[in-house]
Amino acid sequence: MTPAPPSSPSGGHAAPGWCPLPARCRLEARGRDAVTFVDHFTTAAVARLEPGTACEGFFTDARGWVLALTSLMRTADGLWIDAGAGVGPALLAHLEHYHIREDVELVDASATRASYLIAGQAAADWLAAHAAGDPPASPAGHAAVRLGGLAADVARPAWCGIDGFLVQVAAADGPRLEAWLAAAGLPRIDDAVAAARRIEAGWPEAADIPAKTLPQELGRDAQAISFTKGCYLGQETVARLDALGHVNRRLVGLATSGVAAVGAEVRCGGEVVSQVTSACFSPRLSAGLALAIVPLRALAAEAAISVAGESARVVPVPLPPAVPTAADAEEVLLTARRFSVVKVTQHCADGATLPREVVVHPGSVVIVPLVSPQEVCLVEAVRVAVGGTLLELPAGTLDGAEPPAAAAARELAEETGYRAGRIEAAGAFWMSPGILRERMHLFVAHDLAAGPQALEPGEELKTRRVAWNEAVAMCLDGRIEDAKTIAGILLLDARRRAGGERP
């Protein structure tokens, strides 16, 4: 394992800079039927996109196995599809195989474009000041602008990071763009920054997607899969997994002391369970970060995980956005057992600065325990802060660096007594982002076996089994007032109904 650099590569997440990108796949679909044709082969609802907007989506085969994860940009005459290097020929052949009479022209334009990453906390401001035209204001957009007098396509795919931009110009214009960027004072950053951003974003490219991989195993359900669009190739498998089934493995991030070698063994409790498919030094973690598809049974086992024989820990990808921590606070105002309150400075787009107080929290889990498909276990919790008892889903705080799935199993057993035969990740959300850095991870627990509670001192919880339809009604009519419980129940109910299941 290569030792991690002592500090982050130049331009990792600070001042803006640029670097060239390896030849990326750029497929173009043009013509009257271009959008509807592509919509039949991707998990994304591209037929709903307006010109100038973008989304991400999987392309799958008839069995629902992933062929590629892509960013899809709606243009005036069709779509521009962005993916990692080398994907173009196979994806083009796949689409052409089904192209019969539709008015659509499919072109692999990868060789005609030069691609660059412009990234850093002030990258958006720099582009706005130097581009002729308006760069995309959000990751859901893309735009045609001029940079240094050159026509350029600018997009914000997720793999670039929240403050990164993909810039493409004609291949012949690449040297001129590079010279202009240098003359404009934008520094060239380390090529490794691009790989680090992709891996920190949890974005899998071809090397991370082995044969017979299902979309849900790659952990981008919310971003890349529409469960309400029309039919597409592979939809039956994807919808069945969402509604009734589960995956047995998942793409995870592994934090390591050094940078792991691609192909390095991943062990759990001494057993080889996977291998590293991508690795980098992560500026955000200040440590090595690797991607690997790991069996969920290994994560739930709570056994020690190692990469190439050295200790590692599971971290959720995408990594959370860079936010204040107790370590980088200007002042710690309060330190409590499970959180701290710190003072930080917000740097505004207009150059002003504002003092802010932020509650730093390690994160938490909330669990939907399905006693049966038609019944859920809730807890009646005495809450001193609101002066009463609330009906809630079981939940709790992450213990140090433990994986969220392990925390979910622990909290479920402690608060309800139930042990889950299977725990399925169902998303994550920020609890109160105006002041609180707490990211809550949602899980669904299946195949429950009853047992005794193991409450902490001061916890007053009584379990209550509620019919699923009644729990939904209670969220809607105000009898359930707890936000995480409302979010968890209504989100799961919407997904079940979209999959055709009648709770």
Summary, kept brief:
The protein has 503 residues and is of the alpha+beta class. The chain contains 11 helices and 30 strands.
Would you give an account of this structure?
The chain has 503 residues and is an alpha+beta fold. The protein has 4 domains: 177 residues, 2-Layer Sandwich (Gyrase A, domain 2), CATH 3.30.1360; 116 residues, Beta Barrel (Elongation Factor Tu (Ef-tu), domain 3); 30 residues, no CATH class; 135 residues, Nucleoside Triphosphate Pyrophosphohydrolase, CATH 3.90.79. The chain is built from 11 helices and 30 strands. A 7-stranded antiparallel beta sheet has the order 15-14-18-19-12-17-16. A hairpin with an 8-residue loop joins β10 and β11. α10 packs across α11. It is globular, with a radius of gyration of 24 Å.
The overall number of domains is: 4
Q: Unreliable segments (pLDDT under 50, ≥5 consecutive)?
A: 7-13
Task: Please list the strands of the largest sheet in the order they lie side by side.
Answer: 15-14-18-19-12-17-16
Q: Which fold name corresponds to the CATH topology of the largest domain?
A: Gyrase A, domain 2
CATH architecture of the largest domain: 2-Layer Sandwich
List the topology elements.
Elements: E1 2-3, E2 17-20, E3 25-30, H1 34-39, E4 54-60, E5 66-75, E6 78-83, H2 88-98, E7 105-108, E8 113-119, H3 123-130, E9 142-147, E10 150-155, E11 164-170, H4 174-183, H5 192-200, H6 221-224, H7 235-243, E12 249-256, E13 258-259, E14 265-268, E15 271-275, E16 278-282, E17 287-295, H8 296-300, E18 305-307, E19 310-315, E20 331-335, E21 340-347, E22 353-360, E23 364-372, E24 375-383, E25 388-392, E26 395-397, H9 404-416, E27 419-430, E28 436-437, E29 439-449, E30 461-467, H10 468-477, H11 483-498
Parallel strand pairs: 22-28, 23-29
Antiparallel strand pairs: 1-13, 2-8, 3-6, 3-7, 4-5, 5-6, 8-11, 9-10, 10-11, 12-17, 12-19, 14-15, 14-18, 16-17, 18-19, 20-21, 21-22, 23-24, 23-26, 24-25, 24-30, 27-29
